[in-house]
Design a protein that fits this description.
heterodimer; A: 196 residues; alpha+beta; 2 domains; 8-stranded antiparallel sheet; 3-stranded antiparallel sheet; B: 188 residues; 6-stranded antiparallel sheet; 6 helices; elongated
Chain lengths: 196, 188
């Protein structure tokens, strides 16, 4: 009886240790951003880009190009008095809701907040009739924390490095999916180093 | 013939295998046998030392190349009779070679590349820490491009209708070369 109890305790300890190791490994695993483009037309090109987010996070601030400095992009042109920070605050504080809905004979556009995500959905059936395939679909799902980080820079600035940091903290996420019948684009984040 | 015998004897003296003076010892006497044995021992010692030095140098070279990596270049033209080039260059030769090339030869190019060197250095550092994987893959009916990190190396493969090119290099080389370009550009 005593042996069985000891065995049970040891098994429980082993399970806890294995679970702890799995959690630690998941937390320590590097996140990768994947871009996958498949084209059915022309040369039937397939493009796969896989970048570790830790790499992007460190390299972005080092780039000093025309509009990109220290990991921040200067927004060129007029914002027509739109305060992006105030807009973000307003979005964050509202309940889940649809901000924009456009319905036409062939086109449906929806911009909404759902939980911790901003969702943009576009269905364009006009293109479907032209190509004889199916409707063009665009699905964008961006974590609010990433949008917030993106707008955390100065006025008229997008902080790309902060957005990458936020994305890294977010874990596995689907970001963009586009399908226009001839070409599909898929962008997502996970801990795999391949996009297959 | 006498001249030839003289030459052989001189070589033997140089190698320590024959006494410096006097006529060649008679073979039969015990003294001559002792001298011959001593000469042979000296010759053996000479060759052993030489072999040891050569082996040590070769081992050191192999260790240095193994520790610093190799740049592999392979180019194959697909047309009939096309060029096939395979090259393995010890990576250590690149930074050493850059030191030997006079600065004024590449100073201007170094100055032009200067703004991008901090990015290259950070990228090299981060690439070294990054896990292995394929960073870019482009595949179509006529072309295949693959850029990947494997171990401590960046591997680039390009395969199209005309050529198949393989190029790999140790990642540390990027940072090392960037440092040298930065230094050369700063001197301008």
């Amino acid at each position: 009886m005593k042996i069985m109890k000891t065995t049970r305790v040891m098994l429980a300890a082993l399970s806890v240790a294995l679970f702890g190791a799995a959690v630690a490994q998941a937390a320590g695993a590097d996140q990768w951003i994947h871009i996958k483009v498949d084209s059915k037309s022309g040369d039937e090109e397939r493009v796969r880009v896989n970048v570790p987010l830790s790499f992007a996070e460190k390299v972005l601030p080092a780039i000093q190009a025309d509009c990109l400095h220290n990991g921040k992009v200067k927004i060129e042109g007029e914002m027509n008095g739109v305060d992006l920070h105030a807009l973000m605050d307003a979005i964050r504080s509202t309940e889940d809701s649809e901000f924009v809905t456009v319905e036409s004979k062939h086109e449906h556009v929806r911009v909404a907040k759902q939980g911790a995500y901003m969702l943009i959905k576009v269905r364009d059936e006009d293109r479907w009739s032209k190509k004889g395939d199916k409707a063009e679909t665009v699905d964008v799902k961006v974590p609010l924390s990433v949008v917030e980080a993106l707008l955390s820079g100065g006025k008229n600035e997008l902080d790309l490095a902060a957005a990458v940091r936020a994305l890294r903290a977010q874990g596995d996420t689907e970001l963009v999916s586009v399908n226009d019948g001839e070409e599909t684009v898929h962008i997502w984040v996970d801990s795999q180093n391949t996009s297959e | 013939m006498a001249t030839n015998a003289e030459s052989i004897r001189n070589v033997a003296i140089f190698a320590g295998a024959a006494p410096r003076s006097g006529a060649l010892p008679a073979m039969a006497t015990p003294e001559a046998a002792r001298v011959r044995a001593r000469s042979r021992a000296q010759l053996a010692l000479f060759w052993k030392t030489t072999l040891l030095v050569v082996a040590s140098l070769a081992t050191l070279g192999v260790l240095v190349v193994a520790a610093t990596g190799v740049i592999w270049i392979s180019i194959q033209e697909k047309q009939p009779g096309g060029t096939r080039l395979r090259l393995a260059v010890p990576a250590i030769l690149v930074p050493v070679g850059l030191r030997l090339v006079p600065r004024h030869v590449w100073q201007e190019q170094a100055a032009q590349a200067q703004p991008w060197m901090p990015v290259v250095k950070v990228a090299a550092d981060e690439l070294r820490k990054s896990p292995d994987g394929t960073f870019v893959e482009v595949r179509s009916r006529s072309e295949y491009v693959n850029i990947a990190k494997r171990g401590g190396e960046m591997v680039v493969d390009v395969d199209d209708d005309g050529d198949a090119v393989h190029f790999s290099f140790p990642i540390y080389l990027l940072g090392s070369v960037a440092h040298q370009i930065e230094a050369a550009g700063a001197e301008r």
